[in-house]
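User: Hey, quick favor. My workstation is busy. Could you predict this chain's structure for me?
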Amino acid sequence: MSRHAGYVRADHELASLVDWCGSFSIFPHRGTLRDDVLPGLRVAHHRERTAVALRVDEAHARVAILAVYPRGRDVDAALQTIGA
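Assistant: No problem, here it is.
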């Protein structure tokens, strides 16, 4: 039963993250601007558990999710691979 509970919890967390990412269509300019890595790059945090790297494409009215990082990951180091 505990294994099933773990899957249910994981499904809930993933659904929450997907819904949160979908809300960028309403308020896209959230997060910290990281032009030092890549022009227009932003990093926003979901529930202090996940960092999401994104770019807002004003010309096409969309948000591109570039990467998702779990808590504990060295996000600054990981972002360097995006800007490369």
